[in-house]
Amino acid sequence: xxxxxxxxxxxxxxxxxxxxxxxxxxxxxxxxxxxxxxxxxxxxxxxxxxxxxxxxxxxxxxxxxxxxxxxxxxxxxxxxxxxxxxxxxxxxxxxxxxxxxxxxxxxxxxxxxxxxxxxxxxxxxxxxxxxxxxxxxxxxxxxxxxxxxxxxxxxxxxxxxxxxxxxxxxxxx
Length: 173
Fold this sequence. Notes:
Layout lengths: L1 H10 L3 H6 L5 H42 L5 H20 L15 H34 L4 H19 L1 H6 L2
């Protein structure tokens, strides 16, 4: 997916950008800027996937209130807050490339590792969705929701902890 985004950005160059790419050193700088933009688009896509799960959680919250299943509602609110925190962190994370004059330079290998990290965060949406499915089933059947909410809280804690290591990928280079 990231390669597709990078290719689309590169293909949309206008004539001035094509001419500027002939300046020594500019092509590599521009390619990194395009990868930075692709990284931003990928992170926004990832955030939208998690936002879809947030919508599901909010729907379940409403159903729990309607059904009078209030025992796990406070814990579910903590899960909603953790998911919102994760979404906000993904949206506002530093880009996958430092500028030409920045103190921390990020090379191509670090960028590739960062994109692998972001892809793994995208793949993690499925695990979160399965936890929400389990909660949805519990609420729908009238079973106690607390065990499913606790599993969801653990999943969201792990996702936030994992995302905290994203900056380490940049700083390790």
